[in-house]
Amino acid sequence: MSVRDKLAELGLELPKVAAPVAAYVPAVRTGDYVYTSGQLPFRDGELLRTGYVGGDVSPEDAKELAAVCALNALAAVDSIVGVDNIVRIVKVVGFVASAQGFTGQPGVINGASELLGKVLGEAGVHARSAVGVAELPLGTPVELEIVAEVR
Known about the structure:
Radius of gyration: 14 Å
Strand content: 25-35%
Helix content: 25-40%
Strand order of the largest sheet: 1-2-7-5-6
Distance between the termini: 17 Å
Largest sheet: 5 strands, mixed
Structural class: alpha+beta
Number of helices: 3
Number of domains: 1
CATH class: Alpha Beta
Order of helices and strands: HEEEEHEHEE
């Protein structure tokens, strides 16, 4: 089954690639890899949420935002090579704007990891980092970048 078919089966579709908010591009290919820039939880051009996880944003809501970021990252890869040319997701790096004392970053970034697994199966299993930070661009609670091996 193609990745596009799997997305449709899950009731998902790739969004338009979010326009950069500074001087960068959404994704770059070098050799057999596509590296995405940090993807925020944008939907239809709107940032879905601002705030701090473990404060005014619940870990459960942040986990859903991380899944949106992962879908946006797949769209960025798609814009370079086509999502059906993904061989494997190699690495995911997730950043979580964390309230004082919040240490549940891995659970938040599971939203992205779980989505990638549902969409890509074994090819979605990846190495990962989940990092708590004081601030993220535009006040977003979650930011995600991926490295994909491609054909």
